[in-house]
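Here is the promised in-class demo. Please do not try to memorize the tokens; focus on the logic of going from shape to residues.
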């Protein structure tokens, strides 16, 4: 009984911390979208992470309602859905036509997928199996959320620049994964705990990449200057 009480207390603590850190994660892109709003352009930013994050939050919201008493999951994902809708609205407004069309297709696809999952769980699955099916769906989508920045990580490696991968976002994603892992562990919800192990690993990888490439642009600039100076020296010698 003492362990049970301790487990419930720790679950509450990590759930509360998870809500706080997750809220900060949802707010982390605010500077990005402020820049998009000021420049009236989505620049090189991509909408995929925000579309998947919205889909994940909506599915977790449904899972929490099915599970009952999962208030920690309900609160943050309800807030998350609202925030992601705002982000995507701004992105669509200021994105070029090709990006707008792609984002609209992604949103439509996610809405259809969510509708099919809900209908399948309501009419073809009953009892505890319903929670199991939606739990597995949430686990898979959570992995997709954590893997979504892979495209940005590839861009960092290709361009030798971390301009589109803020360190604060990577840090908060890592902290978020840690909090929700322990919450899932203490409430014995492994559909929540297991994906966050991968989330932690992806977050650490992003932070390592940031430190490897954070001076990439500076090095490129210095290289261009040296090449330019070398060219001038050659021209002067030829004269």
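The designed amino acids, position by position:
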């Amino acid at each position: 009984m003492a362990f049970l009480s301790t487990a419930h207390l720790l679950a509450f603590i990590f759930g509360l911390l998870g809500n706080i850190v997750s809220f900060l994660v949802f707010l982390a892109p605010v500077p990005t979208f402020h820049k998009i709003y000021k420049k009236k352009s989505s620049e090189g930013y991509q909408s995929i992470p925000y579309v998947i994050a919205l889909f994940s939050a909506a599915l977790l919201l449904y899972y929490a309602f099915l599970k009952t008493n999962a208030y920690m999951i309900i609160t943050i994902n309800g807030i998350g859905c609202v925030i992601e809708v705002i982000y995507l609205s701004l992105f669509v407004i200021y994105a070029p036509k090709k990006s707008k069309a792609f984002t609209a297709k992604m949103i439509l696809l996610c809405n259809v997928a969510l509708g099919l999952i809900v209908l399948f769980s309501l009419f073809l699955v009953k009892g505890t199996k319903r929670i199991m099916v939606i739990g597995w769906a949430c686990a898979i989508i959570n992995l997709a959320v954590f893997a979504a920045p892979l495209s940005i990580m590839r861009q960092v490696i290709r361009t030798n620049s971390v301009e589109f991968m803020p360190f604060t976002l990577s840090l908060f994603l890592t902290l978020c994964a840690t909090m929700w892992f322990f919450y899932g562990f203490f409430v014995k919800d492994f559909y929540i705990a297991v994906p966050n192990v991968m989330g932690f690993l992806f977050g650490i990888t992003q932070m390592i990449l940031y430190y490897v490439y954070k001076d990439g642009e500076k090095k490129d600039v210095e290289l261009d200057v040296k090449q330019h100076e070398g060219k001038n020296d050659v021209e002067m010698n030829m004269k």
